[in-house]
C-alpha cells in the first residue's frame, strides 16, 4: 500500500522515464500500453513513493514487464 500523502512514481530501473508506449495512471495505479515488435524484451520498472509537498522519497519496489510477440 502507498502511504497517505504519497504518490507512486514509476521510472525505468536506471531512473529514466517510462517508454513512450507505456502509460501509468496515478489515480488507478495502473499501467497500460500497446507495443510493436521493436519493443520486444524486458522492461525493468522501479516504483517510488514521493511525498506530496515534501522531498521525502520511499522506494516501493521493482518489477519486470516482458514484451513478447504473440503472433
Describe this structure in words.
There is one protein chain. The termini are far apart. The chain is mostly beta strands. The protein has a 3-stranded antiparallel sheet, with no helix packed on it. The protein has a two-stranded antiparallel ribbon with strand order 2-3. The chain is built from no helices and 5 strands. A hairpin with a 5-residue loop joins strand 4 and strand 5.
In short:
The protein has 71 residues and is mainly beta. The protein contains no helices and 5 strands.
Extended strand count: 5
Identify the overall geometry. Answer: elongated
Q: Specify the biggest β-sheet.
A: 3 strands, antiparallel
Per DSSP, what share of the residues sits in E-state strands of 2 or more residues? Answer: over 45%
Distance between the termini: 36 Å
Task: Give the % helix.
Answer: under 10%
Radius of gyration, whole Å: 14 Å
Number of helices: 0
- State the strand order across the main sheet: 1-4-5
Mean pLDDT: 86
Structural class, judged by helices and strands? mainly beta
**Residue ranges: pLDDT <50 for 5 or more in a row?**
none
Order of helices and strands: EEEEE
Write the layout of secondary structure elements.
Layout: E1 6-12, E2 22-25, E3 30-33, E4 41-51, E5 57-67
Antiparallel strand pairs: 1-4, 2-3, 4-5
Please name the defining characteristics of this protein:
5 strands, two-stranded antiparallel ribbon, mainly beta, 52% strand, three-stranded antiparallel beta sheet, 71 residues
